[in-house]
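Justification of computing resources. Each target in the renewal requires a structure prediction run like the one illustrated here; the chain below, 281 residues long, is used simply to show the kind of job we budget for.
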Amino acid sequence: MIQVVLFAQPVKVGLFQDQLVAKAVVYCSNGSFTLITDGVERRMLEANEILYLTLEEGKVRVLDSDRDFGQVEQVELRAGTSDAVFRLRPISPELESRVYDDDLLVTAGDRFLTLVNRVDLDKYIAGVVQAEAGGNSHIEFYKAQAILCRTYAMKQNQRHATEGFSLCDGTHCQVYKGRSTLNPEILEAVLETTGIVVTDFNYKLITAAYHSNSGDKPSRLPMFGFPMPTTSFRWWIHTPCISPNPSGGIPYPLRSGSPTCSGTGWNQLNDYRRRLYMWSR
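Resulting structure tokens:
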């Protein structure tokens, strides 16, 4: 693994991409926002204020509780404070609301609104970790998951570039249902690993594919279209040695310095990958 400097890098995430959203309501839950339509600042929105967005004739009609801002092509709800939070609820079709950090971008299409959350990368990673791993795991697990999610996001960050955003919020990319709220250790784990990604020995980001539920046995990589790795990964700190599991389950790593482990440091993981693959067959 290597650590890179990201300087609070934002990511654009397409929201509700499995639905054709034609109407939505935005609730400003915390902080303040600037409403911008077609590049023009229109007003400030404070906590508890509401914005209505409707697709009409290929444009977005924008209304608040007192004023109709007319039909526009693009809408930006730009966070004015670092703690700004909004709740987004599609009402056509009617879906459960989700809570997001930072900014909302809205563009009109012929049949639906493109809704995009422009959010700090680490806040996004925390939301992905919660959606993929749940809220009841150990902080060390969350750290490992955060590194994988960050690596995947940076590797695939142009996957939806032609659609106006970087990643979608579904399983096509990584599941993202908004800000992390279930367990404060998730965000703590993300911040403690900020900037850390996994690369191969050519310093290229790996395709950090993972699944949230394997049933108790890892599925074979070729089932998901990924060949077995042919190169080693850069593995930071102490790479564990490998031991067969006496119960017949998945082979597990040994701590460096244990009686049956003599290797430390920058070890290659070929043997572990081989054992894991053979066990999963």
